[in-house]
Each structure stands twice: as structure tokens, then as C-alpha cells.
């Protein structure tokens, strides 16, 4: 998946790298067990649950995969450009993107009705 890194994100990563220490050839988010290994997906999910809970939300309603989908879903809702979303996700088949976003006939008809020739 291709993505942009905003200036705010860059600054956050810089601050994290300074706080974390270590070299640029090391994992940005190392394992809690060994700095030579990366953060596991299971540990990332645990951290996400803690962060969601800390801001007063319900952990079961948020997940690591839903974070991946959020931006592209917003792009699709705003523009209706499913091809752009396909490219961002790195999908080779448009059908995969359609299923991924949960686009249905009603969405397609609404876009069609909103477009005048």
C-alpha cells in the first residue's frame, strides 16, 4: 500500500526515534522482547486496544485492519474514485477493491445519479 507521510507524522516519527534511541537501520517499533525483532502484530493489537480505551472508546469497535481501511474509505466516500483507491491499496483487481470497501449497487447508483451529463 502506498501512503503519504504528513509533516505532523514526520515530526512524530522524528520525536519517537529520538526517544527510542538506536540507529536508523533498526526497527522503528522494536519487539518488547528484543530490539533485534520488530513489534509483533499481536502486540500492536494489544497497544491499539489500550490506546482506544485510554481515549474512552470501545476497543472491540476498532482494530488494526480498520485503521488501514480508514483513509482509503474516506477518499472513496469523498471522491467516488475507486480506481485511485485501488492504486493506493496496491490491488491488481478492481473486484478486490470493491469487496474491500464493501461497495454495493446502492453506492454505484447514488454516484451515477449525482453525475449529470
TrEMBL record:
Keywords: DNA recombination
Origin: domain of life: Bacteria
GO molecular function: DNA binding
Domain Tyr recombinase per the UniProt entry, residue ranges: 1-116
Coiled-coil segments on the chain, per record: none
Keyword DNA damage found: no
UniProt organism field: Gluconobacter cerinus
Transmembrane segment boundaries: none
Protein name per its UniProtKB record: Integrase
Matches recorded under Pfam families: Phage_integrase
